[in-house]
Design goal:
By secondary structure, this protein is mainly alpha-helical. 45% of the residues lie in helices and 8% in strands.
């Protein structure tokens, strides 16, 4: 909230303003002496505290813009402090000594055994409850939605709906006319206020801001010919294909070469994304699935997918900007995460047969 600022001093020959300020501070100190500084709990503090009292924590929410006196009243009603007058005194002293500060909105964990100064300082300094969440590289928004629901943040449906709202006004660098924020929610570990865990848009804005801070400068510094959307889209496909980090530049090089030659990317993860499925070693994609029409099926469509298919990390984003120059046009995954790269279709088909033979042994 906004605190009342200390008036600017305008020195005069008789120093009236200085005398008024000194009088105010003296008066406050005098009142504190009357109440007794050590008895600010109610202003009384219990002499003995039970273990049950010590462990008890109450979550108290400070609303944005709430006035100091109202905040004291709410704390009293919650049973966390016993004296509204004591709260007013503390607030007055704090404003005189820290005119630029103020009480911070948010949710706090407060014990009834804490003293009034301890509670007031916690809210003044903004020691709100915080929590962590982690989004791995290569996750789609659908995976994120399930994760947030499992963490008790909000429903998957709420998140899936929210990622279709494009906050172009707040993030004007976002590509025009994208239907979803896929690829632009930066994968990372975040520490946030617990208040945000019920607000999908707040989470989304936090992740977009991280993309703006980490990924966008890399793109702007490189000044590539490809658009921002194409960069993130190709990077997301590289992210899904690359398991071993050292292979990222080479995989990016293969895809770049295929695009330059007008070849289809023929990437399994794009088919999986379009169908909303995930293949495994025991259940690979079927010919029927690969042959199912979809805007994301790069076995059937030339060029990139309409949107990214996952959240690429910085390594894949950089690899796509600096792909390895190569004659390879094909690769097939081994079952250890590495790939066999080939220059011709016949070499690729032979490598595929050999990997399947080894799998079936």
């Amino acid at each position: 909230m906004t605190s009342r600022k200390k008036p600017k001093h305008r020195p005069t020959s008789n120093h009236k303003k200085t005398n008024v300020t000194l009088f105010t501070v003296s008066a406050v100190v005098g009142v504190l002496s009357l109440f007794g500084w050590a008895s600010w709990r109610g202003l009384t503090a219990p002499v003995a505290k039970s273990e049950q009292q010590e462990s008890k924590q109450i979550q108290f929410t400070v609303k944005p813009g709430v006035a100091g006196n109202q905040l004291g009243l709410e704390l009293t009603q919650a049973g966390l402090i016993k004296s509204v007058n004591g709260w007013k005194i503390w607030t007055k002293v704090k404003q005189l000594n820290d005119s630029g500060g103020g009480f911070k909105a948010g949710t706090y964990e407060i014990s009834p055994t804490e003293s009034l100064p301890e509670i007031a300082s916690k809210i003044w300094d903004g020691e709100i409850i915080q929590t962590n969440f982690t989004i791995p590289e290569g996750w789609s928004t659908r995976q994120m939605a399930k994760y947030f629901e499992s963490q008790g943040y909000f429903s998957a449906e709420e998140f899936n709906n929210a990622v279709t709202n494009i906050p172009q006004d707040k993030y004007p660098w976002l590509p025009q006319d994208i239907p979803i924020l896929e690829g632009f929610l930066y994968p990372d570990t975040y520490r946030i206020s617990s208040d945000m865990t019920s607000n999908p848009q707040a989470i989304i804005n936090t992740m977009l801001t991280r993309f703006e801070q980490v990924a966008l400068p890399v793109y702007e510094a490189a000044k590539p010919e490809m658009s921002l959307l194409d960069w993130v889209t190709l990077s997301s496909i590289v992210e899904k294909e690359a398991v071993i980090g050292d292979e990222r530049p080479l995989i990016a090089g293969v895809f770049t070469a295929r695009l330059e030659q007008g070849m289809r990317l023929e990437s399994d993860p794009t088919v999986e994304y379009g169908l909303g499925i995930r293949q495994t070693a025991d259940q690979p994609l079927t010919y029927a699935q690969v042959g199912t029409p979809s805007p994301y099926n790069t076995y059937m469509n030339t060029g990139l997918t309409p949107t990214p298919i996952a959240a690429p990390g910085i390594a894949s984003l950089k690899a796509t900007l600096n792909p390895e120059s190569t004659d390879y046009l094909f690769f097939v995954a081994r079952y250890d995460g590495t790939h066999v790269f080939s220059r011709t279709l016949s070499e690729h088909e032979a490598a595929t047969r050999e990997i399947r033979r080894q799998r079936n042994q």
